[in-house]
Specification:
Helices cover about 35% and strands about 25% of the residues. By secondary structure, it is of the alpha/beta class. The chain has two domains: about 170 residues, 3-Layer(aba) Sandwich (Peroxisomal Thiolase, Chain A, domain 1); about 150 residues, Thiolase/Chalcone synthase (Peroxisomal Thiolase, Chain A, domain 1), CATH 3.40.47.10. The strands form four sheets. The protein has a five-stranded mixed β-sheet with strand order 1-7-6-4-5, with helices on both faces. The chain has a four-stranded mixed β-sheet with strand order 8-13-12-11, with helices on both faces. A two-stranded antiparallel ribbon has the order 2-3. α3 packs across α4 and α8 runs parallel beside α9.
Length: about 325
């Protein structure tokens, strides 16, 4: 079994920014209400013509450039998204074609906000067992088309963004030290988009009733999110053989600042060791953690040898954790 790590990262955010003050004009909310409950001040929104794959290709090229490899060297492409270009075929197929990558294994997975950790864990297994040398994992979410702009419980939370990471062989002690993934379908309807699938095929009625928009029961999810992210973080730390005090940087999914503050306090991690960009980006679901990673790598926040803990919680419900030495 070999070791696998992240060799390069890249991100792509739409130019348009929607502030809380912009939202005040279209829904019953306020900048203060949003900031106090979520920590969010602004988020990005796609332009006409943008697609999940078009932004993913741009982010992927940046990650490949940092990693120092070409698209032709990729053996695996995983796109984690709940907002694909279309139901069929996979968005990963469009990314593969757009990059000019070879006819390698390429597929989508849907694990919502935990999706990047799901994809990175799968890629690590491929690499560590010798089934692949280089893998591209993309976390891509264009969620604003799925928002009901009259529902202040959801429209203030989500934004658009894409980020990618290239994984490949790592020289010990660097690489992914431990990861763990979970799903509990008992909470499936606490955060979901009911329309458009086989349960409720697209029709005039599903469109009229708003079934293609994100529905969320935030109060039900808050405690579950905090508990799950704390427990999985402790578990991967134990598997990696490191203590929370040894971690150089914690990158949690950026869903709600209050959730991340609660998880940090329970783990006993100093505030300055926890990265946050939710104020500027909002909740970008599966793109959240890789966007943070790219900001940290390019901004010098992550250095060679650093121990990094990542944890996430999302619809499904799903949750996961990962510890890696950069």
């Amino acid at each position: 079994m070999g070791s696998a790590g992240i060799l390069g990262t890249g991100r792509e955010l739409p130019e348009k920014v929607i502030t809380n003050f912009d939202l005040e004009k279209i829904v019953d909310t306020s900048d203060e209400w949003i900031r106090e409950r979520t920590g969010i001040r602004e988020r990005h929104q796609i332009a006409p013509g943008d697609t999940t794959s078009s932004l993913s290709i741009k982010a992927a090229r940046k990650a490949l450039e940092m990693a120092g490899i070409t698209p032709q060297q990729l053996d695996l492409i995983i796109c984690s998204t709940i907002s694909p270009d279309m139901p069929l075929p996979s968005t990963a197929a469009f990314i593969q074609c757009g990059l000019g990558a070879p006819a390698c294994c390429a597929f989508d997975l849907a694990a919502a906000c935990s999706g990047f950790l799901f994809g990175a864990t799968i890629a690590e297994r491929f690499i560590s067992t010798g089934k692949a040398k280089y893998a591209l994992v993309v976390g891509a979410e264009l969620l604003t088309p799925y928002l009901d702009w009259t529902d202040r419980a959801t429209c203030v939370l989500f934004g658009d963004g894409v980020a990618a990471a290239v994984l490949g062989p790592a020289e010990p002690p660097s690489g992914i030290l431990a990861s763990e993934l979970h799903t509990d379908g008992h909470y499936a309807e606490a955060l979901y988009i009911p329309g458009g699938g086989t349960a409720h095929p697209a029709s005039l009625e599903t469109v009229r009733s708003g079934m293609h928009y994100v529905k969320m029961k935030g109060k039900e999810l808050f405690k579950v999110a905090v508990r799950s992210m704390e427990e999985v973080s402790r578990s991967v730390l134990l598997q990696a053989g490191v203590g929370a005090d040894q971690i150089d940087l914690v990158i949690p999914h950026q869903a709600n600042q209050r959730i991340n503050d609660a998880v940090r306090q329970r783990l006993g991690v100093a505030p300055e060791k926890v990265y946050s960009n939710i104020e500027r980006i909002g909740n970008t679901s599966s793109a959240s953690i890789p966007i943070c990673l790219d900001e940290c790598v390019r901004g010098g926040r992550i250095k060679k040898g650093d121990l990094v803990l990542m944890c996430a919680f999302g619809a499904g419900v799903t949750w996961g954790g990962m510890v890696m030495r950069w």
